[in-house]
Amino acid sequence: MESRKKIISAKGNKKIQMGIIPGHFATNHSHINHYVDLNSIKTSFRMARETAKMIAEKYTATHIDTIICLEGTETLGAFLAQELADSGIASVNSGNDIDILTPEINSNGQMIFRDDAQKKIWNKQILLLISSASTGWSIERFARCLDYYSGKLVGAAALFSAIDEIIGIKVDAIFTPADIPEYNSYGAADCPMCKAKQKIDALVNAFGYSKL
What we know:
Blueprint: E1 6-10, E2 13-26, E3 31-37, H1 39-43, H2 45-56, E4 66-69, H3 74-85, E5 99-101, E6 104-105, E7 111-112, H4 115-118, E8 125-133, H5 137-148, E9 152-161, E10 165-166, E11 169-175, E12 185-186, H6 192-195, E13 202-205, E14 208-211
Parallel strand pairs: 2-13, 4-5, 4-8, 8-9, 9-11
Antiparallel strand pairs: 1-2, 2-3, 3-12, 6-7, 10-11, 13-14
């Protein structure tokens, strides 16, 4: 499977790269015909730093109190907060402190914030940072969680997104389907690869893949 991997650089910054592998892959809520490998962006501090600079350009005019990191984006979140709060750039967040949080997943699969973390959410301006958005399900799920804690979602930034917006929230992404013209996502019941009896190559999520 790895022999099919292709490296794609981000438009505007060739130092930011993702890998793609064509095939038949299953996520928790969809089937996709390309696995999008974003792990190098999340684990390489140089690439994470470059990516944070690119994302920060989208939010210089948006006041942000807290960055919520999903799917292993905490390192990127720290660099992003640094970029947004840098007093050397023209940003409404210049010189401010920005909190960085990751929600806990309880035994029922719900996102929660403990009492001592809720003060960083309540009535705060929240930017969501996520690895990949193929259907928008994770963003919508987080938005419901945020409503419960009275936070205001002011933006969603993704490394890769197959959607432009969800529930009225614009999704800003480094990589889009324009970088992978053949990319498609399907509901499990409508997957043409399943109907053609094409074997699933791997189960995938934001942390990697497990071959079948």
